Amino acid sequence: DRLGAALSLRMGYSYAQGFKLFLEHIDSYDATQLKAAEASSLRTAETERAAAVRSAAEQARPQLGTPGNQLTQTATDLQVGLAGHVADAESSLKRTLAEIKGRITDNHDSAAGREETLTRAMMPLLAGKPRPPARAAPWKAALAERDTAMILQQYALIPSIESAIVARNLPEARRLAQQAASGVTANDAAPLVYLQMVTELVQPGATAPDFQARNLRAAERSWQFQLRQAQTLARRDRARGRALAEQQFEYFRKAPPAWPDLIAFYRDNGFVDQAKAMAQDCVWAQPSYRVACLESAKTESDRAVEKAASEREAKRLVDKWIKPR
């Protein structure tokens, strides 16, 4: 953070309206995501509690056949109530464990903490110095360039393409997609994704143009686009799909963010041993992506085993602390 702020100051950017504001936006986004996750967790807990109470009531129903048996009714009420309390305890425990896991696996401070620390470090550099004047000329010059104007115009077509697809107006969607993937953006990944999608919708099963080769000719090819092509190819020929994915991985110089993606590719296409081996290599070669790599290597079977183990541990703790001895 300090390096980025120092470089931006050397380039003449305002710290208060630049790096500081950027971190504040990240903090605001994180807070919104946290609230959404908490709301989702509470909804899940309510659903699980209702299911537990309903199950306990159904199991106890045969005992209520004896008319006037107040003792049976009371015992049943206690059983149903206990089921609700146990469900609440399990949900609370799951949230607590998730929070602990999040704190353990988080590899950086919060955006608010980063901003506070960085501001303290920047103050000596800013004290007593006038704020640099705004630099609008480079931005205006960029907007005036012919290629820039065309790029903005082409990318602005994407929402219209999506609307045409939703409305099942495929001829219009294809026309717009062909326009977006032309000129200076002819080989860009985003327009090509939409053109490929519409082409496949208009002519299912037909031999499509070689979009992968077009992106290779782009000034900056896209890792995600090339990986998508490898996934499509792997459905027909696993070996060729794998070769394409590995070739692009090498082209991008084994960039750290690409490691989890390639591991997931191996996992999804039957190369599970390769996925697990690469995940272990990632732990040492790319420690910042350790968690993402290990998660990408997990199969559905692995996740089921982990879930069962987590549920057993939660039940053990509930039995220990909640249920009567």
Describe the structure in your own words.
It is a single chain. This protein is mainly α. Helix content is 75%, strand content 0%. The chain is built from 16 helices and no strands. The chain has helices spanning 2-10, 19-60, 70-105, 111-126, 137-144, 146-155, 158-166, 170-180, 189-202, 211-216, 223-236, 238-251, 258-268, 272-285, 290-296, 300-321. Helix 2 (19-60) runs antiparallel to helix 4, helix 7 (158-166) runs antiparallel to helix 8 and helix 12 (238-251) runs antiparallel to helix 13. The protein is globular.
Characterize this entry briefly:
By secondary structure, the chain is an all-alpha fold. The chain has 16 helices and no strands.
Give the overall form.
globular
Q: Which sequence of SSEs, written as H and E, runs from N to C?
A: HHHHHHHHHHHHHHHH
What would you call the structural class? mainly alpha
Helical fraction: over 70%
Distance between the termini: 54 Å
| Count of discrete alpha- or pi-helical segments spanning 4 or more residues | 16
Give the biggest beta sheet: none
